[in-house]
Design goal:
Nuclear Transport Factor 2, Chain: A, single chain, binds zinc ion, alpha+beta
């Protein structure tokens, strides 16, 4: 990965990609952009962002300590977005199939997930993992 490039693997610089989302200066316009920014938040261990972008009804049961531990224990090695279903600027729902690679205890592992996203009051949120 080139110096300064975004952890999400978009090819853009961090400043031009996920940083404004993580810092609260901008709101992701698509489900994919939100998904990518959540991956970058894991890389950067930005736990508050992971909570803020979770579907509001589910935020109460968000386990910040467990999420922080998981994010810190793994060395994130890359993200590939496999398919995107809706989730565009004019949609209210979307699904993104992705694969996140990480090193855990010296082993390269993959987390593959079909994530469901929904928009509420102009903001995209991560809702849940769907069966593929
Ligand atoms: Zn990014």
């Amino acid at each position: 990965m080139a110096e300064g490039s975004c952890p999400c693997g978009s090819g853009a610089s961090f400043e031009m990609c996920c940083k404004p989302y993580l810092g609260g200066q901008a709101i992701p316009k698509t489900a994919e952009a939100l998904m990518r920014s959540r991956y970058s938040a894991y890389v950067q261990e930005n736990i508050p962002y992971l909570k803020q972008t979770l579907w509001p009804k589910y935020q109460d049961r968000f386990d910040g300590a467990a999420t922080a531990k998981w994010a810190a224990e793994n060395h994130w090695a890359g993200l590939t977005v496999l398919t995107v279903d809706k989730g565009g600027e004019t949609d209210r729902d979307g699904a993104v199939l992705f694969e996140a690679r990480y090193l855990s205890g010296g082993q390269l592992s993959k987390h593959r997930e079909l994530s469901r996203f929904r928009k509420k009051a102009g903001r995209w949120y991560y809702v849940e993992a769907l069966p593929e």
